[in-house]
Specification:
It is a single chain. It is built from 13 helices and 15 strands. With about 450 residues, the protein is an alpha/beta fold. The chain folds into 2 domains: about 250 residues, Restriction Endonuclease (3-Layer(aba) Sandwich), CATH 3.40.91; about 150 residues, no CATH class. The chain has a 5-stranded mixed β-sheet, with helices on both faces. Strands 6-5-8-11 form a 4-stranded mixed β-sheet, with no helix packed on it. A 4-stranded mixed β-sheet has the order 12-13-14-15, with helices on both faces.
Length: about 450
Amino acid sequence: MEISRGTGLNESESYLAKLCDHTFLSLWSYPNLYRSTGKELADLTVVFGNNIILFSDKSCKYPDQSSPGLNWRRWFTRTIAKSAQQLWGAERWIKTNPQRIFLDPQCTSRFPFPIDTSRARIHLVLVAHGASGACRSHFGGGSGSLMIRNWVEGADAHTKPFVIGDIAPKKTYVHVFDDTTLDIIMETLDTIADFVTYLGEKVSLLRSDREVSVAGEEELLPVYLSTVTDGQHAFDFPKEFDGIVVVEGHWQEFCKSPSRKAQIEADKISYFWDGLIEQFNKHAIQGTQYWTDEGGVRSSEQIMRFFASTTRFERRILSKCLLGIVAKTPPNHCGRRVSIPTKPGMPFYVFVAYPRSSELTEDEYREIRAEHLKICCILVRSLYPQAKDVVGLATESDSDLSQRSEDAVYFDGRLWDAEMQQNAEEVQRELGIFIERDYYGIRELEFPPVLDEPP
């Protein structure tokens, strides 16, 4: 099965599509889905398990009449208020007609993945173009991003130029990105996990009882990224604060800081993980997978969703783990490594570096390697009762091989009984896999320590 994906209907939508492909990856990001013949659902839709993100991309020239207030109201109405209504309409359609979403304007090709509306978490993002230049001119400088005031509630209350509040407090929150903040948010929170967690924390902050004033959305990021609560980034302002003011300059200062530069440098290896996922995604979309089970592309999507549900920091660690076992294993040996999760609910990852043999055809080699990977995943479940989700990846045990292949599998550890445990123990003894295990911990900081430069 080949999946046909749109690319955007204009230059602005095409740019948004490229940003979303980078952040959410191609198997989960769909420009221009349709709900009926010729009628779009949204400019771009992300469906990632229970997380659904609807994007509306709107570009309107900012008026240049003599009244600043009137200019703003006209632009706000045409660009933001109208697009917000479209987003809420798309949300209603998904909730009531999840099976009537199509890839093509003729509505002949249904969206390939099921949508469970009972568990869906829908996020609405409005990309508003056209006001940044006028904003900088109005204030005599600045970044040009729209200010946030959470006490401005309802569309009719948006009368102060370049100030965004809560467009409809009783409806799903609409996040407004502009020409300045779109790239910053999407490039900084460039995984689905990082992105939707930020949106959720932001809504909790702005819909709290406290008055919040922010010079621009980008100024929230340093506050969010610099705070970790229970292993997750958060807005952890002191509870006794009735009001919160975030002034301009935090983002630029954060970008210039040695710790942020060290984080960016340390994260470079993590994009290996993105490339690995996209290699699988490309074949899933084109219908050119080497092998898959009877579930077809849906099974492939489920497996890859585990890989893509990781944060940027987690991808850094997993990339080091996988690349490490490949580098450590000689070409004629089999190397195995298990990544044990540190947070509840995360999967166990099993990495196998398997040697090639000149006596085997490609099909024979891939079949044997895939079977070995499956066995390793089952044995991990037998050794770790808490391993409810086990995800495996196998590749060649030759770090110098230019033409590398990968196989990925998933094992549901919930489907386990005493007989399976007994069989697994017998296989382990017979094959001698994971009999002697070396354990070691990885100390990795999201913001690596920066040594003071000599005077």
